[in-house]
Amino acid sequence: MSEGVVGRGVFGSMVLPSRPEVAACPEQDESINKASWEPPAGIYGHSVSGSHVDCDDSPEPDEATKRVKLSKIAMDKMRQHWLEQQEAQPTPRMRQSLRHVTSEVTSDEAASLQDEIIPVTLKKDSNEQVELRPFSRPELALTQSFRLLNSDDWEKKIEGLMFLRCLARYHSDVLNSRLHEVCLAVIQEKRAKLSKIAMDKMRQHWLEQREAQPTPRMRQSLRHVTSEVTSDEAASLQDEIIPVTLKKDSNEQVELRPFSRPELALTQSFRLLNSDDWEKKIKGLMFLRCLARYHSDVLNSRLHEVCLAVIQEVGNQRSGVSRIAMVTLGELYSGLQKGMDQELEATAKVLLHKTGKINAFIRQLADAALGSMVQNCTPTRSMNALLAGGLGHLNAAVRRCTAQHLTTLVEKIGTGRLLSGTKNLTDRILPAVSKLAQDSSPETRYFGRQMLLFLSSHRDFDKMVEKYIPPKDLATVRDTVVTLKTKFIKKDPNEQVELRPFSRPELALTQSFRLLNSDDWEKKIEGLMFLRCLARYHSDVLNSRLHEVCLALVQEVRNQRSGVSRIAMVTLGELYSGLQKGMDQELEATAKVLLHKTGKINAFIRQLADAALGSMVQNCTPTRSMNALLAGGLGHLNAAVRRCTAQHLTTLVEKIGTGRLLSGTKNLTDRILPAVSKLAQDSSPETRYFGRQMLLFLSSHRDFDKMVEKYIPPKDLATVRDTVVTLKTKFIKKDPNEQVELRPFSRPELALTQSFRLLNSDDWEKKIEGLMFLRRLARYHSDVLNSRLHEVCLAVIQEVRNQRSGVSRIAMVTLGELYSGLQKGMDQELEATAKVLLHKTGKINAFIRQLADAALGSMVQNCTPTRSMNALLAGGLGHLNPGVRRCTAQHLTSLVEKIGTGRLLSGTKNLTDRILPAVSKLAQDSSPETRYFGRQMLLFLSSHRDFDKMLEKYIPPKDLATVRDTVVTLKTKFIKKDPNEQVELRPFSRPELALTQSFRLLNSDDWEKKIEGLMFLRCLARYHSDVLNSRLHEVCLALVQEVRNQRSRVSRIAMVTLGELYSGLQKGMDQELEATAKVLLHKTGKINAFIRHHADAALGSMVQNCTPTRSMNALLAGGLGHLNAAVRKYTAQHLTTLVEKIGTGQLLSDAKDLTDRILPAVSKLAQDSSPETRYFGRQMLLLLSSHRDFDKMVEKYIPPKDLATVRDTVVTLKTKYSRGDITAHYVLPQNPRGVVQKHFGLIVTEVVSCGMPFYVREAVQKGSKG
């Protein structure tokens, strides 16, 4: 049966071919008519053939004549309609169907109903089957529908139901008079399909009327319907009440809504869960999720049965069922909270087991559900459940997850309660923490030691340890605590000791070998530290026994104890930077073991191995380093190793240059070209990206084609050439905004049609082309898009979900263009588009996250604020991914400030009742960043006079006390990103006493007292700087110690205090710059953005206020050779400011400790492996090159090995960044919200503050005046 099937009566009767260009022929009609068939599910209607007309019912001659006239009238009307719609002439079969239609009605009815006969094409989705139009005489149509429903012909029954559908949509008032009869008529249809159709029409009507719940009369009719149908039909009809569309990602499956009869839904969920059909099981779980969210009181009566059923489904072999079951458990924890305490042990056990699975999605969902348990249930019960299920588990991943969540609970409960000696608390937690702190897994051990360090701050810790720790473990625990308190467990081995030169380095070398040959791992670490000191200060001593040193280090890098292995890798990095080309003979062996480590699971190991390889690339001979990388990583089976190899090779290829690489030299050209070709076709997308970058770089050489023919195998030659052509055509870049220059169309309507054709293609390149068409239309022809905006948005949403990241990224950029081009015209599409963008903000790929965030920023900036707010709440508020919730909270904060408290707390429906519970939830989120933004909003809203009244009205009673306490805390402490604004600083009446008091507070173990002491120092630095001079060294030592504090708030305020000292004492701080700058620079390499921000601000204060030359030396000492790329970037950034401040005259005056330090440093930074550091280094090099003595000083102070490179770099910079076209080479920071033109002045200020050369700033500022 063809796809287009048409009903009779008000819809006409015909069969359309599946392809419009092929007309239906009589032979096809006959073959169709002969076949006996049932309509497929979802196709409602039929094609009437001659076989359907009973010969016994043929009309009399007179009546036949009358019917013929009516047929002619009907045919004339249909023909006129088809001509208006530019349709083809009706086929003989259509005429035959029409005759059948008119034969079924009386002459009076025919005159009325003939106006309703319209050609319609039915589709599988009942919502889209027909184009429904209103009746001219709805009362007559209602009567006709009863006559058709009373027929024995099932096709006529369907036609009657279609009549009712039209009446429900356009003439609902007509139905009210006979609604009960309508429902009874529907009940009498025993076909499951017919019942589904009837229910679907009623549901469609309710949705069209935007009613979340049916009216009481409809609900009564619905209960009557469901009570009359069979059990199978009831299951189907019950599912129609809540429309569900299952997707792969459980976070996006449904929009959960409350039930009208939750008790019935609970019974139905058990029936579905007992089914063998996995899809029914999922539906049953979705029922339980709805009940947990909206009807938690209903679950209490049968909670144990519910939990047993969900636990059984968590263990289901079908991962789709198992994943949704875990999400359901998370909903139960958050909905029932302490009501789940009795079931924690059983549920936590099965979730912990799942955290050890290979499947990352399974692990993530299990971890999220456990996080929900930790967040919402009673902490002590949760702790006991974790200990029972995960403490002694054989799987290391399960123990790690147990330890991670236990750490959260230990901090939540506090040392006072945990070490109070309470039964089933102190006697359980202390042995457990002791065991985790000695676990074989480094990550588990890390969390265990964190807890041990936290507990050790309690005054009764030693007493409790003696009481509850077994005697055999007592000594180990005590030693561990002493070690932790001494060393302040840190991830970076660089900070464990302060390296100093030896007085007798030869003896130290001998001693290091003795220590490395020991079986004690601590002595091995001591030996490695000896080698690090020698590499940094006495590299000449190592040359005599370098091969032995490298063999010993390679052996220790392979050590099974991660602490030893990590410090061995750091030591190799020191050797590379200390000996430089002296390490060339040992590169192959050392690089091989480091590359192997970059494929490990442990992130700390990978990071240190990558840093050591970066040091090799930076300091050793480039060609030797390249050969070592190719030998160790090119053919490695681990994709991570190949990615790291390709990344460092890209740096080397740019460093060596195309001229030398493609010179035809043996062991150079013949090795690099096949290697780059292989990497450009690698199975890993990241490796392939770096390989293609190198291929594109090499292709700029004039002899590239000749060398490719000579060195690339014939089988790969065509592939390489095609890849190069593609790369040159598309200029593959990270940012899709830079791929093409967008221009307006001459015929935009045609371009819109073309874009849909391209997007429907299976070729991803054509899809990208179609998206680029839409971007141009959004930018220049937004009015053209309005007519088909919904189709455009659906197409773009589909491409945002595309598995090919290139397509997905450009689709997100296109959405951003739509928001900025159409602005409020996009309001109707916000919910669907924001939902898919929010989901993308939780992805691992940073580029994907960045583009999704930018598109959402464009939405917040340009669309109606309230609509944007509702879209964010619908898509991101309850998401399981903390990254999505953080992004939601961040953009909500902007919207809350934009809308204002007056409107938000005005009591408006769908505004106040949505924002207050949402902000309350975000302020209590498990993610600290989300919680931060939630509290910001809560603090902002609390300034309104009706805040307390609205809280009582809209916040659930169970959360009211928590919200009020949070607001009081926020108003007391003014929690903000900038600790400068926490308190109003005032001068002291007795500053000497305040200084003494500050030292006493800083020596306390209470972190709040430490903060108070730091605030004392800030006041003294601001108002009484002369008092600090007498004890300045002690003050700085205390501050440096607090900057290293493990509690981030103490560390951040300590950094702000250092900034105050720099601005208060200014040149008086010169003697302390080296020590303070070193610790601040180290903090700029941390993951936490707030920490980096404060460290950078403090360094900026130093650069601004202290002696420039002293500041420069402090930066060079602390950051120039640092292994962390972020630290080197910040060093280079602040050095750029200082170089401009001091000026080329003083810097190149040949002064001691100035010219001899700055020139080699700038040379090194200009060749750094990090592109950002390299950018600032080249800026400084370009600025210095303007001095007349630059060439003379370069020859004097730059090592001969780097001299040619520095000169080439300067020539390139002077050629490329000429003053006439400087703005063409600097890319202004993009404004993600599309307001570049409105705020150009702010952007220019931002660009100028980045540290551009003076003539760049002039060019940009001149451009800003336009």
Automatic annotation (TrEMBL):
Q: Which GO terms describe its cellular component?
A: cilium; cytoplasmic microtubule
**What region holds the TOG domain?**
252-494, 495-737, 738-980, 981-1219
Q: Name one GO biological process term.
A: microtubule cytoskeleton organization
Can you tell which superkingdom this protein's organism belongs to? Answer: Eukaryota
Give the coiled coil ranges.
Answer: none
| Gene3D superfamilies referenced in this protein's UniProt entry, alphabetically | Leucine-rich Repeat Variant
Tell me, what is one Gene Ontology molecular-function annotation carried by this entry? microtubule binding
Protein's recorded name: Uncharacterized protein LOC108270136 isoform X1
User: Encoded by which gene?
Assistant: LOC108270136
